[in-house]
Design goal:
Oligomer: heterodimer
Order of helices and strands of chain B: HHHHHHHHHH
Helix content of chain B: over 70%
Largest interface: A-B, 43 and 27 residues
Distance between the termini of chain A: 36 Å
Shape of chain B: globular
Structural class of chain A: alpha/beta
Number of strands of chain B: 0
Distance between the termini of chain B: 42 Å
Structural class of chain B: mainly alpha
Shape of chain A: globular
Number of strands of chain A: 9
Number of helices of chain A: 9
Largest sheet of chain B: none
Strand content of chain B: under 5%
Amino acid sequence: MSALTVSAAAPAVIVDRLTAGYSPRQPILRDISITVPAGECWAIIGPSGGGKTTLLRAVLGLVRPQSGSVTLPGMQAHATMRSGAIGYIPQQLGLVRNLTVRQNVLLGGVGKMSWTRTIAGMFTGDEVDRAEDALTSVGLAGRGKERVTALSGGERRRVAIARTLVQRPRILLADEFLAEVDRVTAESILDLLARVRADTGMTVLCVEHNLEAACRIAHRLVVLAGGRKLRELAPCDAGCEDACDLFRAVATA
Amino acid sequence: MRGELTPPRFGWTTMLLVVVAAAAIAHLDLQLSGLVRGWDNLLKLGGDAFPPQMELLPTAFVALVETLAIALLGTLIGFVAAIPLGVAATRTLFSAWLVVPARLLAATVRTLPSLLWAVLLVILVGFGPLAGVLATALYTTGHLAKLQYESLEGLPPEPFEAIRATGASRLQLTRFVALPEASNQLLSQLLYMFEYNVRASSIMGFVGAGGIGYYIHRYLQMLQYDGVVTLLLVVLVTIVAIDALSLQLRSRFLTAVPGQA
């Protein structure tokens, strides 16, 4: 792929005819191709067990391709995990339970720490300031000293976003970001995500069960079922109705 | 589906166990007449042992404190030594070239009970509590390392994946994800080990490695059963108290963080 030219439409994620899974005999993903332009937000939708999470994990490098490829222009293959240029928010968020809110946010930047500071567990004043700034921008100012387990589901999602803000990845992979969150909280988290994207120009690839939310935030929807890409929809011209119909069709097929 | 209602059958297993037990009895040539003699002796021992030697209590307490100090120091040193070993033996953090030797080392030091380590160390460093502390620390290292890597491997993978994506190294994952996530379990294991080591170190004096075991051994040899019973009662009360305290503390650690983040 000679896609290194810097333009608004330069691709950030290129998945090319990807077949991948956990066992070679039964690949979960079959022959998937998507190209996400830099700065856009794409949502993967589809019924449970369709391979949505596996696709995110393949982009992250946690699942190796059996054939085809995942290319992230501007990043070396195999070095993606170590580079810290991809943020990952798993469905369960991946917060460390015994740490405080602020400590969890600081974890977004640990990749840059020396081994001596790592062992001592010492963060610089600069790092702490940035963590506090991130907490302020997700609306959790002054909550840094609380344990993450003391927070509500919506607040924990905000902590995960703040961690991503400290990390400043070029690409964010978010899995079922709005699962188990009430409507009002979901709205505010979507707004927050939109603001973060506008500020940082971050490319987002997310898995979303909530079609309405997916239509609101995504430039494009990728419908995945049975490990295959069924369609790629623009939320505006296809509309939620169409997506819902398609959703029902694949779910009952 | 009649088959699903039948209880699991143990025919072969039961038969095998009976055969093995019979072989063991035949091999040991157990003199069951000893049981009768034992009953008579118990009455005699009871007579000899009571009243317990109360004047022995001050000595017993001093020796007990030594036993507790050996257990405490040995447990702490063992805990600190076990952490790097346990982390290195964790499959979810490191690859086989580190995991396999680390597990082998932990298994090796765990093979000998601390009493046998004490025998060896008394030869190496001489009689006294130093041998006891070192023996306890060695065994504890092996035992705790195993408990630790099992706990670390049982942690949920999501935090590791999320933090790995930030570019964190294995050392950073260990320091900022694995150890904090497992800290309650690690502390609970530390208390359990202390409790275990108090029991183990109360007999280490038998081989000259310090503590109350020395006196138990000596009074046994002098056939002063009233002294032996006094010492055993002191040990019993202490161990029961520490077990109860440790159980309570441990349950507090393990229920301190309900729910998941």
